[in-house]
Amino acid sequence: MSTFSIFLVLITIVCFLLVVVIMVQNPKGGGLSSSFGGSAQMGGVQKTTDFLDKSTWTLATILIILIMLSSLSFGGSMSDTGSKIIGNTETPAAPATKTPAVPAQNTPTGTTPAK
């Protein structure tokens, strides 16, 4: 398994966790924090919101770092060394002066015209 494949698996796991953490949150104050009754619970509502907020930022930072590291490791057999947009083909040099093309005449060689 290549390094790039390992980074792909880690990026997929972090993305899944990030989606779960974001879906648990509710922008209007509901979500997971509203299911806890009051501050008598362990941690309380405010602690749950802080945890979800910190975990969102942490997972987002980890995701960005993993993406950058995976781009550095993407140099194996899967990548091309040359560019496909700018080909390495050599173009013939254009003539310095442009002369109009003269059509060839269809006269047979080696025969003399009839008199």
Structural description of this entry:
The chain is mainly α and 115 residues long. Helices cover 49% and strands 0% of the residues. It is built from three helices and no strands. It has helices spanning 3-24, 32-35, 44-73. Helix 1 (3-24) packs antiparallel against helix 3. The longest helix has 30 residues, at 44-73. It is rod-shaped and about 115 Å long. Mean pLDDT is 73; it is low at 37-41.
**How many beta-strand segments?**
0
Order of helices and strands: HHH
The number of helical elements comes to 3
Mean pLDDT: 73
The Cα radius of gyration reads 35 Å
Low-confidence stretches: 37-41
Overall spatial form: rod-shaped
Helix percent reads 40-55%
The main β sheet shows up as:
none
Estimate what percentage of residues fall within beta strands: under 5%
Give the end-to-end Cα distance, rounded to a whole number of Å.
86 Å
Determine the structural class based on helices, strands and strand pairing: mainly alpha
